[in-house]
Design brief:
Elements lengths: L1 E6 L2 E9 L6 E6 L12 H7 L13 E5 L4 H9 L5 E6 L19 H6 L4 E4 L5 H11 L8 E4 L9 H7 L4 E6 L9 H5 L23 H24 L3 E6 H11 L2 H8 L14 E6 L5 E6 L2 H11 L2 H11 L6 H6 L1 H13 L3 H8 L5 E4 L3 H6 L4 H4 L3 E6 L3 E6 L21 H9 L3 H9 L9
Parallel strand pairs: 4-5, 4-7, 5-6, 7-8, 8-9
Antiparallel strand pairs: 1-2, 2-3, 10-11, 11-12, 13-14
Helix pairs in contact: 2-7, 7-8
């Protein structure tokens, strides 16, 4: 049964949702999705527009409302959208700050935003207004067995909280990313400095902290959030119960430091990791400069790696003599780590006397693990770089930006190999609101006129 709902003077269609048992009413603010040919209530509509075969999409039909900014939250949806999930990103009108974050193209379009929102649909709603908040809640709580999922890193706003949404849809899945477990704000750099890694990063003789440039805690947190969505959805499919899941950057960082042995090393052994420059902790690995001032990273994790490196560099007799003198067995990984500086000094002349091409020719057929140090420009432009060799990249025409290499999902599913573009900000506003909430063109125009929604009128 449809009845009118007053949203700031406009009457929008909604319906009461009923449980399967006896038609019990569970709420009265969820809009009726339109029905009929040509109307899509899953990723199928969006996927078809991108040339994707929805029948083969691993996450086809799963709908996630993405109310996120920065890196951690958007990256969670970014990992799910290329697998077929219908990830609908909600931005304020004109876009949040990350829609303008560097790097940008010469028209000011954020390449950062495009990369983190690949394959999503984008809508603009002014959630500072009661009408806008009502629209966001209605989208989150719209009916459907694969819907009712929200991902957010917004501050703990009551209208976007689990309790409020569960009152409208009891089986809602609410995944929230925070900076700290107590809810206080934090970002990747402020978390990273507190776990000690900047003090063991950089040259051994450097006395200042060194921040690495990869937002690793953001990206790991985004992966955890994606896992949370899939796990909670599985629980709901088996039990019918919704979930409230909170994941914090700080918790991810602390847990990771524990998993990698940093915490136990202090508690059990009474010591902490030392700053060692480019030496590989716990094994033998370091960088070497070639005769033409290029650098390679060499790693010998196993005895076989080590034997091939010694043979390649002609150090067999010198290593035998060193083992005899020190009374050690350098076939053991721990011993190679202990004497890493001495071993590096013995091996260094072999690299310094050869050009990179000569070094590469020797390393190529060997079983030594190695890689060349490249700039980002070389990663993009060198025909022999990882980007060029990667099977995940393809040129994609990004709306408003142009054509450049874009990855598919790094999960190599059989029969699923699609490259999706990022949306234009707000370009799916009318499509989503009409598709999921049943709003007419007249109603959309009225909302746009009052500044409740953005995007270009369809």
């Amino acid at each position: 049964m449809r009845r009118p709902l007053d949203l700031g003077g406009r009457m929008l269609a909604c319906e009461k949702t009923r449980s399967e048992e006896g038609g019990k009413c569970e709420g009265d603010r969820i809009y009726r999705p339109p029905e009929g040919p040509g109307v899509h209530t899953s990723k199928a509509g969006s996927a078809a527009a991108h040339g994707v075969s929805p029948m083969s999409a691993p996450l086809e039909g799963l709908r996630i409302i993405d109310v996120c900014t920065y890196v951690a939250g958007p990256s969670a949806g970014m990992n799910l959208a290329p697998l077929g999930a219908d990830v609908i990103r909600i931005d304020p009108i004109g876009g949040a700050t990350d829609t303008r974050r560097l790097p940008t193209n010469h028209h000011g379009k954020s390449l950062y935003w495009a990369g983190l929102n690949q394959g999503k649909r984008s809508i603009e709603i002014d959630a500072s207004t009661p009408e806008g908040r009502e629209l966001v809640q209605a989208l989150i709580c719209a009916p459907g067995p694969d819907a009712g999922i929200v991902l957010t890193n917004s501050p703990n706003r009551s209208w976007l909280g689990y309790e409020s949404l569960a009152g409208r849809r009891p089986d809602v899945i609410h995944v929230r990313i925070t900076g700290r477990s107590d809810g206080r704000a934090a970002v990747d750099y402020t978390v990273n400095c507190e776990v000690g890694l900047p003090l063991v990063t950089g040259p051994a003789d450097y006395d200042r902290p060194v921040n690495h440039v990869l937002p690793s805690w953001d990206l790991l947190t985004g992966l955890h959030a994606a896992i949370a969505i899939l796990t909670a959805e599985r629980v709901r499919s088996r039990t019918g119960r919704g979930q409230s899941v909170v994941v914090s950057l700080a918790d991810v960082a602390v847990a990771t430091m524990s998993h990698l042995g940093f915490v136990a090393d202090v508690v059990v052994n009474g010591r902490a990791r030392l700053r060692e420059g480019n030496y590989l902790y716990g094994s033998f690995g370091c960088d070497f400069k070639t005769a033409d001032d290029r650098r390679v990273m060499i790693v010998a994790l196993t005895e076989r790696h080590w034997d091939h490196l010694v043979e390649l560099t002609g150090m067999n007799e010198a290593i035998e003599a060193l083992q005899h003198s020190l009374k050690v067995n350098l076939a053991e990984e721990e011993e190679r780590y202990r004497y890493r500086e001495l071993l590096a000094a013995l091996l260094r002349p072999w690299f310094e006397e050869r050009t990179y091409d000569q070094v590469a020719a020797g390393l190529g057929p060997s079983h030594v693990l190695w890689g060349q140090y490249r700039s980002v420009e070389e990663l993009v432009n060198d025909p022999h770089s990882l980007l060029a060799e990667s099977g995940v990249m393809a040129d994609v025409d990004q709306p408003g930006i142009g054509v450049y290499p874009t990855p598919r999902s790094v999960l190599d599913f059989t029969g699923w190999d699609e490259h999706l573009s990022a949306p234009l900000l707000g370009s799916h506003t009318d499509e989503v609101l009409s598709e999921l909430l049943g709003l007419s063109g007249v109603e959309l125009a009225a909302l746009r006129e009052r500044g409740i929604i953005g995007g270009v009128s369809g």
